[in-house]
Amino acid sequence: MLRCRTLQEAHLIRDELEKEDIVAILPDEKDLSRHLRKNGCVEVRVSAKAYEALGDLRCMVEFQYKQLRADRPLHAFGKVLGMVLDVMILPGVVVFAGLLTSYHKNGYLRMAKELKVWFCPGIAAWLVVVALLIFLDAGQKGQTKKRSYNVPATGLVSSCGPRLI
What we know:
Structural class: mainly alpha
Radius of gyration: 33 Å
Helix content: 55-70%
Low-confidence stretches: none
Distance between the termini: 104 Å
Strand order of the largest sheet: 1-3-2
Number of domains: 2
Mean pLDDT: 77
């Protein structure tokens, strides 16, 4: 069974196989469209022995499919997810590692690279926020120390304050 990304590609593969006297079976157009929407690909049924005999065609189809998979860009949702995963510090890193491993394992090299690219600014943003909070906290501690009032240890009342009689 061959998987094709589009209906046109499925028809082209079937035509190429039929030129070589190999029977390729495609369902009717309605089933093809439904299968494409459901699974994201169209399946062309071919005899395994006949397909193996045509090494050039097999290599061309499989290489093209792997190459197209490797060059697929990361979707907008994936980019947003890469940035948002940093918000959930530990679970986010675990999900990021799982996605990255899955992309590499399934041959989505560009998607894996772009996920890393979108994950790194999220980490950088968190580091900036943490550094800013630490800086602001240190600044507030310094201001509270400056505002401390010195009361004389002698017990004398200041001439500026109210007098108690």
